[in-house]
Amino acid sequence: MIDLPATALEQLAESLSRQPFMVLTGAGISTPSGIPDYRDNEGVRRGRQPMMYQEFLGQPEARRRYWARAMLGWPRIRQARPNAAHQALAQLQAAGRIAGVITQNVDALHDEAGSLEVIELHGSLQRVLCLDCGQRSQRDAIQQQLQAHNPYLAGVDAVPAPDGDTLLDPAFEERFQVPHCPYCNGSRLKPDVVFFGENVAPATAARALSAVHEAAGLLVVGSSLMAYSAFRLCRAVAEQGKPLLAINFGKTRADELLDLKLNAPCDQVLPWLAERLLR
Predict the structure, then answer these.
(1) Which residues, at least 6 apart from 199, have a Cβ–Cβ distance to it below 8 Å?
(2) 177-201 per-position pLDDT tens digit
(3) Which of 36, 103, 107, 146 has the fewest other C-beta atoms within 10 Å?
(4) What is the mean pLDDT of residues 122-140?
């Protein structure tokens, strides 16, 4: 049972029944799949400072720290499965009820659920980029290398953090061996994601902006919109005079721009919406 006024749900369904909206998703859509999010309901970042882009580039010890934690965090990402919200969006897209999905998430759960041509604003943890030769590798292959070279971490218990990170005791990081590129043997491997302090690739940003310009409106799901790469899409929609809707617990950066906001679980609202529009 969704704890919302029936009028709010009907307004959401009515808006999306006219013409296809784009959907912009954030960490809140993946928390039911067991992946922690970055921010609380006030939009305040949880826990410690995340890895910054310049720190990762410039400090070998930062890369060692990142990969030690990521080695332990990857299985949670790898084992996560799409939830009812991901599946509902894939069904709505297949039926032409939404124009597509733009996501800030790096877990690839939209792809696994069956969404097509997902625009990944912040990349994907499924891939690893070599900063020396530019080649990409599959994350599973790098994980095998990490486990082979760092067997002492097998079985170490670490607290999960967002996007495959963990809260690992620094004592376990000191002798960690970072992965090497399978192509050039370089040691500067980076997950193929946008770190804090790093810019979204211009081509990706342009593709996302074009998608929202062409759509009838934008539905935000599970995002505080604190990242400018997402907020600018909302602002563009508002400037065009198109509907801007949100399903999100707590504050968002675009609250003043929203035409409708539902404070309810997206894994309940989206399946309801799919059933309502596809019957």
Answers:
(1) none
(2) 999 999 999 999 999 999 989 999 9
(3) 36
(4) 97
Among the candidates 167, 193, 219, a domain finishes at 193
| Beta strands at 21-25 and 218-221: parallel, antiparallel or unpaired | parallel
The one-character DSSP state at 67 is H
Residue positions annotated with a catalytic role: 122
Whether the predicted pLDDT of 264 surpasses 50 = yes
Is 208 in the same domain as 136? no
Please give the Cα distance from 22 to 43 (Å, whole number).
23
* Domain co-membership, 3 together with 91: yes
pTM: 0.90
CA proximity to 249, closest of 275, 212, 220: 220
Q: Are 89 and 134 within one domain?
A: no
* DSSP three-state, residue 210: helix
Specify the pairing of strand 21-25 against strand 98-103. parallel
Q: Which range of residues forms the domain containing residue 20?
A: 1-35+81-122+199-279
Residue 69 lies in a domain: yes
Q: What is the average pLDDT across 162-179?
A: 74
Q: Quickly tell me which residue has 């508002």 as its tokens.
A: 238
Does the pLDDT of residue 148 top 80, yes or no?
yes
> Which residue carries 């625009």 as its tokens?
119
Measured CA to CA, the distance from residue 83 to residue 105 in angstroms comes to: 14
Residue bearing tokens 């990409």: 136
**Pair 2, 58 in one domain:** no
Report the domain count for the chain.
Answer: 2
